[in-house]
Amino acid sequence: MEKPIKIIPLGGLGEIGKNCLVLEYDQQLLVIDAGIIFPEESVYGVDLVAPDFTYILERKDQVVGIVLTHGHEDHIGALPILLDRIRAPVYGTPLTLGLARHKLEDAGIKNFRFFPVEPGGTLHTGPFSVRFVHVCHSIPDGVGLILETPVGTLVHTGDFKIDQTPVDAIPTQLELFALYGKDALLLLSDSTNVDKEGYSISEKEVGEKLEVIFFKAQGRIFVATFASHIHRIQQILFLSRRFGRKVILAGRRLEENTQIAQKLGHLHVPQGLIIPLSHMRDYPDDQLTIITTGSQGEPMSVLYRVASGEHKQLKIREGDTVIISSRPVPGNERAIARILNQLFMAGAHVFYQEISPVHTSGHAHREELKLILNLIRPRFFMPIHGEFLHLVFHSQLARRLGIPRERIILAQDGDVVELTQDGFSIAEHLETEDIMISGKGIGDIGPQILRERIRMSRFGAVVALLLVDPQEPRLVDEPRIIARGLSEEGEAMENKLKELVEELIAAEPHLLRDENVLKEAVQRVLRRHLGKSLDRRPLIIPVVVQVK
Ligand SMILES: [Zn+2]
Ligand SMILES: [Zn+2]
To answer: 387 and 400 share a domain?
Structure first.
């Protein structure tokens, strides 16, 4: 019987983020992307979430390569975690590898092996041949993949849009998709914007809108955008030059990314255009553009600090123009609204996507998705890169274009899809558990820790300290209660809780014989009291110390 190819999404199906897809043929694995996702509730101290790489780690000697489609965090952010544990060659375009290199060096990872492949080029590893197809996206040097495997041709669009007038004048290489991808066995396609009608607007059109704003602006212009959106930055640089403005890059990431992009020929920086922040005072307001990060309202970002008045050198004043040139990532809307309010309050003219087309998405809308489907006419179709509802919408779109229901693979993270020329099955479902990253700790936070953090952040914590003489057994001293984050009535509250513990032990002295039984009983009494009297459920930590 024909051997199947296994397609195993470890991340990115069921969420927009932490993309990672494994292809496996005859015990040889090719990993496509290794990204992270930002958690919705950062209040519990989880900064990033990475996919569960267990399946790869258990087969680490069988990994023939890691292919990166582009340099966004949701595709390369978890590379340091993966390369800390396995050694495998990494393939990507020069800019993607340039950004990834930075990430690995920051994380102290050495001895990685990078193999740059230009768009249009092909790499061979194990049983796979992978052709890179240039695609337009909100970062340059992104690619889709045409993978020749022993089972058949697979096409992976990567994150893409079809922009007929991109800033670098290199449109998505539809001709390569058509030439090498036509009648492919399987198409894996970006579902992010499947619920958006029509075509995405071109990056050039955003430039035209920005031009009008630049034309009218009297004071300084602040533009907040993603540090990796090199083409947006390019347009802002050119507009600034045309309107006689110097440019300040406010943010370390922005400086790093523009340097890498410039070195690799993806960004043209006119001589003398960029000045350091310390030279700002040498120029009048109407000769300055300030590019910042923080378009997502991130609390430590430059824009946040500027808007809240915390930035030392940059303060918003009346007459400034602020352009938020990005779209809120779902979950960040409140944080961005707060910044917008502060900017308006400070007297700035503010432009953002809802009121002015100062941003366009890097992901294909419905008509573009249809075009790819019709160009490839795949035998099987698998929507990727989307929340589950996006994957369902994309499946429905494919059916309307004539792909029968039984050839559509609606998979989720952890599914092991086995595909042959004749059909597919979901052979197995892996139980996966995301890797949480908190500060410098990787993977040391599980559901238990998260539950504790949630409790503490909502209700505070109570420590009950009991000194026990195990010989008698008896309490050596009266119990001590320390409550934090629970109530303003600290001492009265602590005294009440202390009494309850004393009453408990007076009534049931046998509890002192067994430390664990004692702890549970103390927890139960305090929990019941706080639940009844305050309707609060703090984390209760009984500590028993044996004193001889
Ligand atoms: Zn992307
Ligand atoms: Zn993505």
So the answer is: yes
Shared-domain flag, residues 213 and 192: no
Residues 29 and 123 in one domain: yes
Q: What is the CATH number of the domain that holds 400?
A: 3.60.15.10
Q: How far is the CA of 227 from the CAs of 11, 236, 295, 523, in angstroms?
A: 24, 13, 10, 49
Task: Tell whether 86 and 185 lie within a shared domain.
Answer: yes
Catalytic annotation on 394?
no
Distance 195 CA to ligand 1 centre (A): 17
Residues 222 and 85 in one domain: no
Distance CA 472, CA 548 (A): 10
> Which of 381, 412, 442 corresponds to the end of one domain?
442
Q: What is the CATH number of the domain that holds 491?
A: 3.10.20.580
| CA dihedral sign, ordered 53, 57, 62, 66 | positive
- Distance from the alpha carbon of residue 60 to the mean position of ligand 2, in angstroms: 25
Q: How far is the CA of 153 from the centre of ligand 2 (A)?
A: 22
Residue 517: CB atoms within 10 Å: 13
Which of 301, 322, 352 represents a domain boundary (last residue)? 352
Active-site entry in 363, 365, 390, 394: 363
Residues within 5 A (CB) of ion ligand 2: 74, 159
Compute the distance between CA of residue 374 and CA of residue 381 in angstroms, rounded to an integer.
12
Q: Which residues have CB under 8 Å from 406's CB, separation 6+? A: 423
Write out pLDDT tens, residues 24-58.
999 999 999 999 998 766 557 777 889 999 999 99
Interface pTM (ipTM) of the complex? 0.99
Q: Is 190 a catalytic residue?
A: yes
Residue 276 half-sphere exposure toward CB, CA atoms < 13 A: 2
Looking up residue 315, the CATH number of its domain turns out to be: 3.40.50.10710
Q: Are residues 137 and 222 in the same domain?
A: no
Mean pLDDT of 55-68: 97
Count of domains observed in the chain? 3
Q: Are residues 435 and 451 in the same domain?
A: no
- Dihedral, 185, 191, 195, 200 alpha carbons, nearest 10: -100
| Amino acid at the residue 132 | F
Tell me the residue range of the domain where 240 lies: 203-352
Question: Of 257, 4, 276, 316, which is closest to residue 138 (Cα–Cα)?
Answer: 257
The end-to-end CA distance of the chain, in Å, is 73
The one catalytic residue in 33, 52, 74, 190 is: 190
Are 194 and 211 members of one domain?
A: no
Tens-digit pLDDT profile for residues 295-339: 887 877 899 999 999 999 999 999 999 999 988 877 788 889 999
Sorted by sequence, the CB contacts under 8 Å of residue 425 that are 6+ apart come out as 417, 418
Taking residue 121's Cβ as centre, other Cβ atoms within 10 Å add up to: 13
Angle, helix 490-507 to helix 515-534, in steps of 10 degrees: 130
